[in-house]
Amino acid sequence: MNVEAYMNKLGQKAREASRVVARADTGLKNKALLAMAEALDASRSALAKANEKDLENGKANGLDAAMLDRLALKPATIDTMIEGLKQVAALPDPIGGITDMNYRPSGIQIGKMRVPLGVIGIIYESRPNVTVEAASLCLKSGNATILRGGSEAIHSNQAVADCIRQGLEAAGLPLEAVQVVETTDRAAVGKLITMPEYVDVIVPRGGKGLIERVSKEARVPVIKHLDGVCHVYIDAQADVVKAENIALNAKTHRYGTCNTMETLLVHESIAETILRDLADRYVAAGVELRGCDKSRKLAPVMIAASVDDWSTEYLAPVLSVKVVSGLEEAIEHINQYGSHHTDAIVTENYSLARRFLREVDSSSVMVNASTRFADGFEYGLGAEIGISTDKIHARGPVGLEGLTSQKYVVLGDGQIRK
Amino acid sequence: MNVEAYMNKLGQKAREASRVVARADTGLKNKALLAMAEALDASRSALAKANEKDLENGKANGLDAAMLDRLALKPATIDTMIEGLKQVAALPDPIGGITDMNYRPSGIQIGKMRVPLGVIGIIYESRPNVTVEAASLCLKSGNATILRGGSEAIHSNQAVADCIRQGLEAAGLPLEAVQVVETTDRAAVGKLITMPEYVDVIVPRGGKGLIERVSKEARVPVIKHLDGVCHVYIDAQADVVKAENIALNAKTHRYGTCNTMETLLVHESIAETILRDLADRYVAAGVELRGCDKSRKLAPVMIAASVDDWSTEYLAPVLSVKVVSGLEEAIEHINQYGSHHTDAIVTENYSLARRFLREVDSSSVMVNASTRFADGFEYGLGAEIGISTDKIHARGPVGLEGLTSQKYVVLGDGQIRK
């Protein structure tokens, strides 16, 4: 069978399965999730064997150490997958919830019911644990899934898929509710993102290259996450201790995450008080500083920032620093050079805080808190399929609710339109 | 200037204006809307003159009577536009509303703030009153708009645009908050739907051909409305009087609307009681009936339905009729052949009603009410930019809220991530 026909078949089966999963009750979905956890636990040696194959191939194909590390299914990774399944089972079921039920003058009663999106296509790289993570969130939110992992993880993903199927079977749910693409042919991705008749939304999880390609070629909506160029703005009326703590935490807590600060903005009237000390602390932490002219005068340890620095997501111990004349300039800088991900102000001034919250056009806006909090778990979503940098449908951390939609429910008593 | 450069300039200006409109307070936006209404009232003769030009060109170009009628800006049409502006001014402002503000164990407080989408591109045909309708909804929801009307209405649209600009000016809002494309070059549409850097979402309003072309070629999200193949299912336990009233109203109240019923499904055990009488009443109303074999045995006035009939949006006094064995078959038929728009069950049975609401995958699902209620005004949205048949972002009637998004707001006291 050629790839096109194969993907069509997968799509058709996913569409059929999605109807069953959409109406599956909470108990059934949880039963499947917990049975998946048991199957993973019982299949540790099979998983290790499959993963070994991928690792050997990866080494032979010259994957670097970081990629091999992400590919490895260590016992601890499997523990985390099992724990994750139990956590998703424990989350409240979003499906079927009815809100805002109100009477209208015509006598009809109208509200909204939360419903699944249908079929979700997930495209991801290396890490085989994403297979379980994505499948569990989609299942709990009543969706069918087609998962397309990286070719380097094909054996591991198939072994994980086997455990997922055991879980679905134990709950009497259709095995096609979660399908893992079995071919490594790259044409499968091209087909998956261009069959709106079978797939309702695509969630790409991986590097920027993958996400840009998917967004460009997709014929279905994409919940995408591009850059995280996050800012902290230290206002003239900032509490100095809070400001230093937040600025350090936002940069140095972890370097490779999308909610890490990449540019620090400092009000000119507080720069003298705070910038030299902060610069010393960054340097002590091993952070390279790239500053504007004014910053460099105060802290000569900085090298000169170029205009590209303002829009760069370093994902590394590098920070750009700019002294600004006030809130106006800070907001303008953030809206122009940022990526609309997460931005914070440090201030004790009520009116400035209020303006920052309103006028900064980012998926998360914060007052006196570290940008590192922008995360589904920290926000209380219970889980996270990704962080959306889009405005349409889902913005910011996407949990179960982001994988659902709402339909209108109308209850009448024989009403007709006059 | 070529079209590409012209549209780029429009886009850039819209993006800039969107930042100002996003933070404009409610009073300012309402002032602009009411000033637009005044400008329209004061420009009746200029509007009539511009419209006369379009009508003459239209006649010369052989537009049919229906198109000329939609193109005409009669005094009553202008009254409706003025009334519409006042109504939108009176609607509550969705922007800035904060919901679900809760504390997390880390001490941060998190909620969601409703924000504009940014820049909305509207593509529409003939009716110049859409210019005002769309502009007012976008402005009230804090968005900038680029409007691209049909070339046949170019003079009327420009005259309306002039009134809109007067309104914006009176309120001190940027004139580029609402821009009406001044070229009739079709390449302008192609450009408008492929500049994600300037346009956040496209709303096409017009025939199916337009919407399909836009969805296929767009590089930005599209809030689209395709078919309305709506159903009424009369269950075995339906109240006969309610059933007949709803079935007649859903078909005959208006033929050309998307929420009009196109297929009637009847449970086999009630068909004998109800179908002959209903058929007589449809025929008396001038409706052509196309039935399945079983229906035709009971009401020989019907002609035979083909399989295409089940998925056809007639938008005309034509109805397809099918006798089904029960709820299961009805739901399957609706989910397979329908367009996921609006579907109703008539029944007195609690459990069947509940199953229908849950399992029918449509933007509006109803019990004992006419499908004709699926409408932004009837639902209490106050206004409607269209009805979405998508699941992503907005589903069903789209009012002001559908033109907005939500961002996360985090309030802290110096919290950092542990």
TrEMBL record, chains A, B:
GO terms for molecular function: glutamate-5-semialdehyde dehydrogenase activity; NADP binding. It catalyses: L-glutamate 5-semialdehyde + phosphate + NADP(+) = L-glutamyl 5-phosphate + NADPH + H(+). GO terms for biological process: L-proline biosynthetic process. Belongs to the gamma-glutamyl phosphate reductase family. One of its GO terms (cellular component) is cytoplasm. Residues 8-301 form the Aldehyde dehydrogenase domain. Catalyzes the NADPH-dependent reduction of L-glutamate 5-phosphate into L-glutamate 5-semialdehyde and phosphate. The product spontaneously undergoes cyclization to form 1-pyrroline-5-carboxylate. It is an enzyme of class 1 (oxidoreductase). It is found in: Cytoplasm. Pathway: Amino-acid biosynthesis; L-proline biosynthesis; L-glutamate 5-semialdehyde from L-glutamate: step 2/2. It holds the Pfam family Aldedh. NCBIfam families: PRK00197.1, proA. Its EC number is 1.2.1.41. This is Gamma-glutamyl phosphate reductase. Keywords: Amino-acid biosynthesis, Cytoplasm, NADP, Oxidoreductase, Proline biosynthesis. It comes from the Bacteria. Coiled coil: none annotated. InterPro entries: Ald_DH/histidinol_DH, Ald_DH_C, Ald_DH_N, Aldehyde_DH_dom, G-glutamylP_reductase_CS, Glu-5-SA_DH, GPR_dom.
